């Protein structure tokens, strides 16, 4: 059983998971499996493949800024808000309702928030001409992005590998 699979085990008492990630669920934990109507409802309102593709567009976009490109959509005060993207909007809304009782939901939310914090710092440092600090923040973005994608793929696997509708937003930053 994989590392992420064990993290998608809900607490038996339904209480939120502690912020302390020093211990993992017991070795008898099963992977996240959402069945029947619950899975269909989740997939009808959220397309995991689109979320992954949209999130993966951030890193090349940020890389261009790191290399000196200027993009007016990439304003640090907007980027820092992890609900500025389509994924963030879902995580803070219907995603919390659907998956908030799973320990990995909190991990996904925190990794997504960290990604946005690092992206905002990277843009600030790049705009200030602090290339070394910008590069360091960019590496944090890359790492957090990989973790977000892995958690989304694990969620998809737990839903039976299905995906819903196909939408492709024009840019990583969602509606504001």
Question: Quick summary of this structure?
Answer:
The protein is mostly helical and 176 residues long. It has one domain (34-158): Four Helix Bundle (Hemerythrin (Met), subunit A) (Up-down Bundle). It has helices at 3-7, 36-45, 48-56, 58-66, 76-79, 86-92, 94-99, 103-127, 131-158.
Task: Explain how this protein is built.
The protein is mainly α. It has a single domain, classed as Up-down Bundle (Four Helix Bundle (Hemerythrin (Met), subunit A)), CATH 1.20.120. It is built from nine helices and no strands. The protein has helices at residues 3-7, 36-45, 48-56, 58-66, 76-79, 86-92, 94-99, 103-127, 131-158.
Sum up the overall morphology in one term. Answer: elongated
What's the number of extended β-strand segments? 0
The end-to-end distance, rounded to whole angstroms, is 39 Å
Oligomer: single chain
Specify the structural class: mainly alpha
Summarize the main sheet. none
Q: Which fold name is given in CATH as the topology?
A: Four Helix Bundle (Hemerythrin (Met), subunit A)
Percent in strands: under 5%
Uncertain parts: 1-6, 19-32, 163-171
Please, what is the CATH homologous superfamily? Aspartate receptor, ligand-binding domain
Number of domains: 1
Which class in CATH terms? Mainly Alpha
* Computed Rg: 17 Å
Total helical segments: 9
The succession of helices and strands, N to C, reads HHHHHHHHH
CATH arch. level architecture: Up-down Bundle
Q: What is the average per-residue confidence, as pLDDT, rounded to a whole number?
A: 75
Helix content percent band: 55-70%
């Amino acid at each position: 059983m994989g590392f992420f699979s064990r993290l998608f085990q809900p607490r038996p008492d339904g209480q939120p998971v502690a912020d302390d990630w020093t211990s993992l669920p017991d070795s008898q934990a099963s992977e996240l499996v959402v069945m029947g109507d619950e899975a269909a409802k989740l997939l009808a309102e959220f397309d995991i493949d689109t979320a992954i593709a949209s999130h993966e567009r951030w890193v090349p976009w940020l890389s261009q800024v790191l290399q000196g490109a200027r993009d007016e959509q990439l304003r640090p005060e907007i980027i820092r808000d992890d609900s500025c993207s389509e994924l963030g909007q879902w995580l803070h809304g219907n995603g919390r309702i659907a998956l908030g009782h799973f320990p990995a939901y909190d991990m996904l939310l925190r990794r997504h928030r960290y990604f946005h914090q690092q992206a905002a710092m990277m843009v600030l440092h790049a705009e200030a001409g602090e290339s070394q600090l910008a590069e360091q923040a960019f590496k944090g973005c890359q790492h957090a992005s990989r973790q977000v994608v892995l958690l989304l793929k694990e969620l998809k696997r737990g839903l039976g590998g299905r995906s819903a509708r196909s939408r492709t937003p024009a840019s990583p930053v969602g509606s504001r």
